[in-house]
Write a structure and sequence with these properties.
Blueprint: H1 10-20, E1 24-29, E2 31-44, E3 51-64, H2 65-74, E4 78-86, H3 89-100, E5 108-111, E6 117-124, E7 127-134, H4 142-155, E8 161-165, H5 174-187, E9 191-194, E10 208-209, H6 213-220, H7 232-239, E11 243-247, E12 253-256, E13 262-265, H8 278-291, H9 296-310, H10 321-340
Parallel strand pairs: 1-4, 1-8, 2-6, 4-5, 8-9, 9-10, 10-11
Antiparallel strand pairs: 2-3, 6-7, 11-12, 12-13
């Protein structure tokens, strides 16, 4: 396995983040609403042995593909979000949150009779007490699927990158995956995929395929030795993708490239408060960097920096280019001191 790549120079990072602002990124996938009810608990319910939470604060945030889109928009890029919501209160809330994030909703279609996917987290004493999921996981089909395919075609007309965010909530049927990936390949734009279990092998030809370790091992039905550089190219070949990026949480990520090289990129996170949304941040930065002309290695470095910033925040959050630049300069200074001291 190769050593971690040398840090990008400051000038290169500035150039890439500037180019990101001129890029057009399309995100297709499962749109979700994250709700948070935050309060205090001091007693058990007389009705059942469960805590009573007195709610003091409540807020909503974009989740799933919508959170990826919000992260892309936070970079200054133009982002088009393609997906579906229900004709309900949560669907209206998502459209409101998209407006706050300065994201268009004209490629987000409303599906009658299908609830908007939402996850409500009840939190007390800084701990999640319970999560309530309201969702239908059946794949879109019939007229709804046909309409979504037409919408996706329109959105991809001038795209510089395609990001596919699959949470197994039904918005990415195989027919839609095949159409959008064919358009992207024909146009020669990068394709970044964040997969889940159900359609893990539907993404042949992706530029970067980004599962976490649990998703990868579950789909393959076996443990994967990420320290064995010789075994990982076989996994790449089985998936039929160009590059494999496996996220490892606090351990960083492993990048397996189509030339057979394998690189471990350690996490730069100093404080980990909340890992929710970190994968979405990696997808957004990876795709946006590739759209800006970064190499796959450069894009992985930027995505790793961004993830390190995101996990230091509470809840699902976006990461700005300025935050990544600050982390990069701190890292660069660290390496410089070690070199001057003869330690590396």
């Amino acid at each position: 396995m190769r050593a971690p790549p040398a840090p990008l120079t400051r000038d290169r990072l500035l150039l890439l983040t500037q180019r990101m602002k001129a890029s057009r990124v399309v995100v297709v996938g499962d749109i979700m609403l994250d709700r948070y009810l935050i309060g205090e608990t001091e007693r058990l319910s007389p009705e059942a042995p469960v805590p009573v939470v007195s709610v003091r604060e409540r807020h909503a945030a974009l989740g799933g593909a919508a959170n990826v889109a919000a992260n892309v928009a936070a970079l200054g890029a133009r982002c088009l979000l393609v997906g579906a919501v229900g004709d309900d209160v949560d669907g209206a809330s998502i459209r409101q949150e998209l407006a706050v994030a300065r994201l268009e909703d004209r490629f987000v279609m409303t599906v009658a009779g299908r609830p908007t996917t939402s996850k409500t987290r009840i939190i007390a004493r800084s701990q999640q007490i319970v999560r309530i999921d309201d969702e239908v996981e059946t794949l879109l089909d019939g007229p709804d699927l046909e309409r979504l395919v037409r919408i996706a075609r329109d959105a991809l007309a001038d795209a510089d990158a395609l990001l596919l965010e699959d949470y197994n909530k039904g918005a990415l049927p195989p027919a839609l995956i095949a159409v959008v990936m064919e358009i992207a390949r024909r146009r020669g734009i990068p394709i970044v995929v964040d997969p889940k279990f159900r359609q893990f092998f539907e993404y042949a030809g992706a530029t970067v395929f980004k599962p976490n370790r649990r998703e990868l091992e579950s789909a393959l039905g076996a443990a994967v030795d990420l320290q064995n550089g010789n075994a990982l190219p076989e996994v790449l070949a089985r998936l039929k993708v160009d590059n494999l990026l496996v996220t490892l949480g606090a351990e960083g990520m492993v990048l397996v490239m189509k030339d057979g090289s394998t690189t471990h990129i350690p996490s730069i996170a100093r404080d980990i408060y909340d890992v929710s949304g970190a994968g979405d941040t990696v997808t957004a930065w990876m795709g946006s960097a590739l759209a800006a002309g970064a190499s796959v290695r450069e894009a992985a470095q930027l995505a790793n920096y961004a993830a390190g910033v995101e996990v230091g925040k509470t809840g699902v959050a976006t990461v700005s280019p300025e935050e990544v630049l600050a982390v990069h300069e701190e890292r660069y200074d660290q390496i410089g001191r070690l070199r001057r001291g003869g330690l590396i």
